[in-house]
Fold this sequence. Notes:
The chain has 16 helices and 13 strands. With about 425 residues, it is an alpha/beta fold. The strands form 4 sheets. A 4-stranded mixed β-sheet has the order 1-4-5-13, sandwiched between helices.
Amino acid sequence: MTRMVDVIEKKRNGGLLTKEEIELFxxxxxxGTIPDYQASAFLMAVYFKGMEPEEQAHLTMAMVESxxxxxxxxxxxxxxxxxxxxxxxDTTTLILVPLVAACGVPVAKMSGRxxxxxxxxxxxxxxxxxxxxxxxxxxxxxxxxxxxxxxIGQSGNLTPADQKIYALRDVTATVDSIPLIASSxxxxxxxxxxxxxxxxxxxxxxxxxxxMEASKALAESMVAIGEQVGRNTMAIISDMSQPLGNxxxxxxxxxxAIETLKGEGPEDLTELCLTLGSQMVVVGxxxxxxxxxxxxxxxxxxxxxxxxxxxxxxxxxxxNRAVIEDLSLLPQAQYQIPVAAEKSGYIxxxxxxxxxxxxxxxGAGRATKEDEIxxxxxxMLDKKVGDYVEKGETFATIHANAEDxxxxxxxxxxxxxxxxxxxxxxxxxxxxxxK
Length: 435
Ligand code: URA
Ligand code: CA
């Protein structure tokens, strides 16, 4: 019988693990027969020796099989899911759900809340008065079959192995291992029922992966896992050196999403949605090429179908669809406080992570699970990298429900850099990765 110590030793020596050896680890650790010290040693061995694509695929599927799997087979068509590795002001999910559904791809979205600078997609949707995210499995399936889209909260016991392994990685300095991250992310998407997966791997100051090389390696790993396990997967690398779009905050991002669905959104956010949306439409089988998909997406923005479908989603889940025409129905903060440039020049850098913290301090996000979010507050960026500002001109506006915003203001002044020399905006799409 294979023992865990042999599996650890094999990986420590750089060996290629079999499916059975990987399952031994995942099953044993999840059911408590393998202790933390052996699991820790194993994870550290993986951290240093890496894993081949087939090992990563086995690890992914062992984690998928550790818990419940959502069966979406009652929904007609190829179910496409999108995952972003997370950034500041990332409003794309709110836009992509109706945008891609309007092209005929069914979108059965399970979303989370999570910790961060702003809430997750679920929190953002709750800025829509009355919107509820609790649907039974049957209601969820029926709504996707009828309308092509639904968004619900995560439920069920998905990938318990990943939860347990992730918690151990967190305290053993093994989080930033590409095979471990890739299998962790892919396991959750597959357990949630995705047939095809589009990945937005963020790169830069405000992202989990700080460099282009690391982001690319992660994207390639996930695309390779997808290929091995029969889930059509594509990825892009997108810039997260500055926040995406202009809005950082929950209601502010809903407003920005609606504007983008009308074709009036910020240029970078619109472009990212068209890029990711094209991949979703192709892997969802509604277009043969990315170019053809992009034309479809532009068409459903121009003819109002994407926006109207967002209205249908809001209505189906208990909200008031009038918000798509009347943005004043969204929660508004009591104070709007302009932040003015202290000198004239070009914006050369907007450090996404610190700007995210400035939004979180206003109450837009959670530092711990218990924190309450204030849906109305956040930051609007009136300028982005490459723009010129005059001394005294507003470059950002703080939306707050407290009068004292000195901490957030100080962060914005410190981490938004203004220099004499003009710089070009960073390239939004770093790379596109397909099998
Ligand atoms: N996000 C995940 O879901 N898993 C990881 O391992 C890292 C980031
Ligand atoms: Ca920084």
